[in-house]
Amino acid sequence: MTTHKPLAGFRVGVTAARKAAEQCALLQRRGAEVEWTPVLSVEPHRIDEVGLRAATEQVLLEPVDLFVATTGVGITSWFSAAEEWGLGEALRAALDRSEILARGPKSVGALRRAGLRELWAPESECFEDVLSHLRGRDLTGKRIVVQEHGQSLSNAAHALRRQGASVEVVTVYRVEGVEDPTATFRMVDLVAERKLDAVTFTSAPAVAALMDLAAAVGRRDEVVAAFRADVVAACVGPVTSAAFEMWGVPTIHPERSRTAAMVKLLETELPSRRSGVAFDVAGRLLLLHGEQVLLDGLPVHLSPSPRAVLHALAVNPGHVVSRRDLLACLPTGTASSEHAVEMAVARLRSALGTGVVQTVVKRGYRLATS
User: Fold this and answer.
1) pTM (2 decimals)?
2) How far apart are alpha carbons 341 and 360 in whole angstroms?
3) Positive or negative CA dihedral for 330, 335, 337, 340?
4) Domain 277-367 maps to which CATH number in 1.10.10.10, 2.60.120.1440, 3.10.180.10, 3.40.50.300?
C-alpha cells in the first residue's frame, strides 16, 4: 500500500536553529525535499550571567507592582539561574506579589511551573497587545519589570514610562546570528532565485536575520519579491508573521503556534498553489500555474517583468498594489524608476487585454476581479 505524501515534489527551506531535526523529519515524512540552514545560532539564547544576576538583585530591592513575562524559555532560564545563585525563592516571592501579565501560552506554562500565576494574557500572543492592555491605565508611580524576549524592548519601556511608570527591563538572553553565514547566504540565493516552494520561520529574529543577510549581499529586494510572488513564507505564529509586515510579504501561519500545525498547513497550501489559481478577470478566465499563464485556456507568453507584476497582483486579487511595491517585485537589472512598472503593466495589458489590470489613481494597480 502506497502512503500518500502531500508534500512530494516540493522543496522547503527550514531556518530554525532549535528543534530543527524534528521539523525537518515532519516535512520529509510528508515527502518534501528539505533545505536546512539555521539563520540564528544553534544555541541562540546566550545568557550574560553577570548582567542577569545584577538585574535580578536590582529587581529584589523594591516591591514590584507589575511583571510582564514574554517567553517561556526566558522565564525558565531566569529562574534556573536564580536558583543557582540562591535567589530563586526571593525572586518567586517578589513576582508573586505583583500583577503578572504573560504574552502567550509558553510564558504562561513557564510561570506556572515556577509556582506563579498570570492575571491576564492576550489570545493573540502578541506583545503589542500586552502594551495595548496597559495603554489606557494610569501607571503613575507603578514599578514595572519586563522580561525581554531576545530582542530589545527599550521602545516599549519608554512608552510605559510616558504613562508614569518606573520600568526595568531584564535581559535574560540575546538571540544571536550564526557565526559563519556562508550556508545562510545559500538560503538567500535559493529564495531569491525562487528555487524553493516555501521557507519556514519559527521566530521573528530569524526573519530579521535572513533579511539582514540578504541585504548584505545585495539581494534583499529579490528575496522580498520572491516571497511576495512564488515562495511561501510559512510562520509558526502571528508574532513571527508580524516580522514580515514591514516588507509587505504575505505569510501563512496556523491558529495554534506549533511547528506541527505549521507543517500541516503547508500540506494544503503548497498543493493548492501547484494545482493552479484561477481568477475571473474582466470577464475572462485567468489561470496561473507556476510560471505558466493561461487565458481562457490558451497559454500566454509573458516576459519576466510583466509576469512578476501579474504574480504580485494575484497574491491578493482585487487589492491595490502600489507602484513602489511592484517595482520591488521586478527582476534584478530592471530600471529602478516607476516608469519600469508602467512599462511592465503596459506589456501585461497588451498580452492579456486592457481591462485585466486597473489603474487606481495615486495608489497603484489591481486585478479587475469580479
Assistant:
1) 0.60
2) 14
3) negative
4) 1.10.10.10
